[in-house]
Design goal:
The protein is mainly alpha-helical and about 325 residues long. Helix content is about 65%, strand content about 0%. A hairpin with a 7-residue loop joins strand 1 and strand 2. The chain is globular and about 55 Å long.
Amino acid sequence: MTESVHEHVAIAEHKGEPLRRVTFGKPGDLLACYDLLAKGSKSFSAASRLLPRHVRDASAVLYAFCRVADDAVDLGMDDCRVDRLRMRLDRAYAGERLDGPVDRAFSDLVVAFDLPKLVFSALLEGFEWDANGRVYTSFSDTLSYCARVASTVGVAMTAIMTDRQPHVLSRACDLGLAMQLTNIARDVGEDARNGRLYLPRHWLDEERVDVERFMADVKPLPGIERVTLRLLDEADRYYRRAEAGIRVLPWSVRPAIFAARYIYADIGRVIRKRSGDSVTDRAVTSKLRKMLHLGRAIVSSWSRPGPALYDPCAPETAFLVNALARNAKPPEFSP
C-alpha cells in the first residue's frame, strides 16, 4: 500500500528486512512535521526530497522537534521555558506524550530508532547557551556550540540511515560542524542585532575588533569580515572531511546528504563574493544553483570515500560519537 504524508504511518526498511510500519503519532502529526520543515528550512527541505520515504519521514519529525525547541529560544526563553523543554524531552522518552503533533511523533521516533537521550539533552543545552548569552572565547568554544545544535542532528540522522560505526558518526559530526559554522558566518549581522555573537573572541581580538562597539552599532567592519572568512575556511575543512562519511552511507541517502552539503557550502560562496560581509545583507542561494547542486550531488555519490573516513572526530564531538556507538542497537519497527 502506498502511504501519503497525510497519514501517520511511515514505511521503513532496515538491512534488507521486509517493509514494516513505524507510527509517528496520530493521523496528521507527520504532515504537521512536514509543514514545519517546508516553512523553516528551504535548503534542508530541498535536499530531503532526494531521501527515500522512510528516512524522509523520520528526518521531518527530527527537524520539527528541533524547530519547536529553537523557536522557544527565539521567543525569549527563560529558565521556566528551559525546564519545560526538558520536561517535554523526559516525557517523550517515557512514552508520556504531550498533546501536540510534534511531541507525539518525536516520542515514536526515539523509540523506533533507539536514539539516546543524551543527544537531545545536548541539543537543549545548546539552546540554553543561546538563552543565557554565552560568550565564545576560543574557536573550540564555538565548535562546542556547533556540536550541540548541529552535530546532534547529524548523529541522529546517521542512526536513522545506517549502522552506527564510530568513523561514520565522526564524519556526520563534521558535517554538522561545517553547516553550523556556515550558518554563523551567514547570520553575523542578524545575530548581533539580537544580542548574540558566535565568532571566537580570540579571533576578534587578533583583528582588534571592539566587540562592545560592534554590538552597539552593528555595521560592516574589515575585522569582522576577515574573521567571517576565516570561519568559512574552517567550515570548508569540515565539509571535505564529511564527504568521506557520506560516501559510505547507503546509496539511497547519499544524494540528499551531498545536496545538503553543497547547498549549505554555497552560502559561503555568496559571502566570499561579498568579501566576508554578512552584516549588510543575509546571503542566500538561488533556486537555480540549488538545482545544480542536486545534480552534482548525484554525481558525487558514486565517488570513493578516501582516507579521511577514519580521521579522529573533533574533540568537541567525541561525546556524541561515544553515545551513539555504544548504543548501536538496530531500530525495531512495529509490525
